[in-house]
Amino acid sequence: MAYSTVSQVSVAVPTGNDISIRRSVFKSNIISFGNKSWASNLSFDLKSRNAQKSNQYIVCMSVQQASKSKVGVSPSELENEKEPPLNLFKPKEPYTATIVSVERLVGPKAPGETCHIVIDHGGNVPYWEGQSYGVIPPGENPKKPGSPHNVRLYSIASTRYGDSFDGKTASLCVRRAVYYDPETGKEDPSKSGICSNFLCNSKSGDKVQITGPSGKIMLLPEDNPNANHIMIATGTGVAPFRGYLRRMFMEDVTFKFRGLAWLFLGVANSDSLLYDDEFTKYLEDYPDQFRYDRALSREQKNKGGGKMYVQDKIEEYSDEIFKLLDEGAHIYFCGLRGMMPGIQDTLKRVAEQRGENWDEKLSQLKKNKQWHVEVY
């Protein structure tokens, strides 16, 4: 973290609407703590990652990130459901939610823009970690005049309690989709992603039509708190894993995680890392339960001298990964569809080097419900 040379006290205070990916600047002479609702006598500004990188502010993470004591959540009834909520709202009758905030997540050297978007659903569209919301952008579908746009699915990047821990919000991790003409090199707005640009351009108070929640393949299995979990993400595919890790390490919930969580995150460069401060803090606070490996394709080289991708990290740690899988670990993949062929090729090659048949091993992993894939 970066600090300015001014005589002020830097503190971290969890508030009812605190969004943990933000950095808060607090100024106060007298600091006292009770529970997670304290922040009444402090003035604060919310600064983006770019401001944090400029070394101009006292920067501090919220208490729930900065200490090992876990955050209380509500309503507790969200822990009682035996089955995940599914398709409570459908495309023909979506729920009208409200945008709480939109924050740029990446630094100035990141290729493209990725935003953290908090949506208030009022507790009316509950979900579980690993599920997705559908979003219907405003306007008319150009391919079906008179009809709304098609639903776009986004993995939810928060736990069922949301970033404010009250069960009323959900967070999305959205990369703005833009198109550049290959001949001119200029952006063509007519071909930009309709939904991602709508979300990234949204302001607090804007309305958004959502459907869902949907999906069961990426649900976090909680029947065995000692189970190990290996998470492979590229870019915004880290969204469900942020939810998993907050549930494992940040929130005081009925799920008492005692296993190992291992995250592999592949992005272009350091400025493209998503939720890095959260993950780094878990690494500091839970070194025996959390591992975190980054693959930065434009900054790191693999053993062959080429760009470093997540499959190269998988190969680097293949002995440990295969051992964990043999012991029953769950493995998850989330991100662009193009990530899977390289990963599958790497796993197959490693298996063959170990004298194993990958097709048979994969079949067994699927049969045991250890294999979880969500790509788009």
Automatic annotation (TrEMBL):
Pfam family, one: NAD_binding_1
GO cellular component, one term: chloroplast
Chief localization: plastid
Swiss-Prot/TrEMBL cofactor(s): FAD
List of residues binding NADP(+): S155, R175, T236, S297, R298, K307, G335, L336, E374
SUPFAM superfamilies assigned: Ferredoxin reductase-like, C-terminal NADP-linked domain, Riboflavin synthase domain-like
EC category name: oxidoreductase
An individual GO BP term: photosynthesis
EC number(s) recorded for this UniProt protein: 1.18.1.2
GO terms of molecular function: ferredoxin-NADP+ reductase activity; poly(U) RNA binding
Location in or out of the cell: Plastid, Chloroplast
InterPro entries: FAD-bd_FR_type (IPR017927), Flavoprot_Pyr_Nucl_cyt_Rdtase (IPR001709), FNR (IPR015701), FNR_nucleotide-bd (IPR039261), FNR_plant_Cyanobacteria (IPR035442), OxRdtase_FAD/NAD-bd (IPR001433), Riboflavin_synthase-like_b-brl (IPR017938)
Keyword Nucleus: no
Catalytic activity of the protein: 2 reduced [2Fe-2S]-[ferredoxin] + NADP(+) + H(+) = 2 oxidized [2Fe-2S]-[ferredoxin] + NADPH
FAD-binding FR-type domain ranges (all copies): 92-220
Keywords associated with the record: Chloroplast, Electron transport, FAD, Flavoprotein, NADP, Oxidoreductase, Photosynthesis, Plastid, Transit peptide, Transport
Family as reported in the entry's similarity comment: Belongs to the ferredoxin--NADP reductase type 1 family.
PANTHER family, sorted: PTHR43314
Name the UniProt record assigns to this protein: Ferredoxin--NADP reductase, chloroplastic
Organism: Hibiscus trionum (Flower of an hour)
